[in-house]
Amino acid sequence: MSLADNGSTRGGVKTLAIRLEPDMHAQLSLVAQLRGSTITDEIRRAIEAHIAGATSDPDFTAQATGALEDIEREVEARRAAIASLLKPKSAGAAEGSPKGRRSGPAD
């Protein structure tokens, strides 16, 4: 089974393309038919159950917490970098050419 994201969005919903072996497709079609459902609804239910199982797993929760902490550290580092770019320069550094730099043509 292969899951490909074709990147299209319609009405705030992502569209995914799923490749299934013929026997799995036949089984899924039968499950949907017997439940009076659609293949899409059955896939959605399976994904919801998978996500619920993942979020109740302590190892997964620890990984997600670590990823969130990494993101927060990166955001803070980027925020600090941007803030340092926006700080006003001292009057001496803003005027004239920097120390040690020649004012003639480049080599």
Cα radius of gyration in angstroms: 28 Å
Uncertain runs are: none
What average pLDDT do the residues reach?
85
**Strand order in the sheet with the most strands:** 1-2
* Largest sheet entry: 2 strands, antiparallel
Q: Give the end-to-end Cα distance, rounded to a whole number of Å.
A: 60 Å
Fraction of residues in helices?
A: 55-70%
- Please write the string of helix (H) and strand (E) elements: EEHHHH
| Structural classification | alpha+beta
Number of separate structural domains: 1
Principal-axis shape: elongated
The total count of strands amounts to 2
Binned strand content = 5-15%
SS element count, helices: 4
Describe the structure.
The protein has 107 residues and is of the alpha+beta class. It has one domain. The protein contains 4 helices and 2 strands, in the order ββαααα. A two-stranded antiparallel sheet has the order 1-2. The termini are far apart.
Key structural traits:
alpha+beta, elongated, 4 helices, 60% helix, two-stranded antiparallel ribbon, 107 residues
Kindly summarize this structure in a few lines.
This is Ribbon-helix-helix CopG family protein. This protein has 107 residues and is of the alpha+beta class.
